[in-house]
Amino acid sequence: xxxxxxxxxxxxxxxxxxxxxxxxxxxxxxxxxxxxxxxxxxxxxxxxxxxxxxxxxxxxxxxxxxxxxxxxxxxxxxxxxxxxxxxxxxxxxxxxxxxxxxxxxxxxxxxxxxxxxxxxxxxxxxxxxxxxxxxxxxxxxxxxxxxxxxxxxxxxxxxxxxxxxxxxxxxxxxxxxxxxxxxxxxxxxxxxxxxxxxxxxxxxxxxxxxxxxxxxxxxxxxxxxxxxxxxxxxxxxxxxxxxxxxxxxxxxxxxxxxxxxxxxxxxxxxxxxxxxxxxxxxxxxxxxxxxxxxxxxxxxxxxxxxxxxxxxxxxxxxxxxxx
Length: 323
Description:
Elements: H1 2-20, H2 28-34, H3 37-47, H4 49-67, H5 69-90, E1 93-95, E2 111-113, H6 116-136, H7 142-157, H8 167-206, H9 224-235, H10 240-268, H11 275-289, H12 293-306, H13 308-315
Antiparallel strand pairs: 1-2
């Protein structure tokens, strides 16, 4: 118990330092800030959710004492809570219905692990919550929020213009005011997903991952997620605060389906020669240009509607016997 407590405090300290590094203004602090959930997630996967909870509470409390209550709340919502809960979900398992333990070999019954697609939905929920709460700190209505964002961006972008923004800068600011909440949601989705994947790899390499590595090619969102996406997209045009929140939800679910699209891509390319080359090229193009993510999103939607992976695996010829 003392060892777990020590690990929890060490992880909490590391996570708090990475989170607080953003106050230094150094470029590397941005990377550390977004990787702040990683120590908590590693602790949750390797030593259990209780250790992650202890580390997260200790870190949030220390940040509150040093920097004030806003830092404490921000760390708890953006780092500690997602790190603890996602790690907890990743370790949830139940015996497969009809499976029983093998008494002869002392093997426990086979387990059905919490679906990766549902974990992806939780990541989307955390991305929506953190982005919405961040916007609500700027105001409680769209006019106040957009006005605050506009003034802040004008101040930053006009610093080198003698304080007088040009027409070009004003047009850029108007575009950024629209895109900023959506970009924040995308960043939250990607960083939480990446942190959980890295935490799994670290604990697997160390031998402390108490579950088999999931088959990401089979990742699928629940069927009702598509309905939620359509409803959120429709509400994005009603105006006001409801539309802003609906746009954030839509963005999170679009990224969720884009990640499923990558899983579909990994399945549909199983029989390709130089598969690694093609997959690496597609990932590189998406990272470099951004907009091809629309095609990956469409692939994820197509799989949800038409079952592309299931059709492919049913018609795929069996592998040739070994010579």
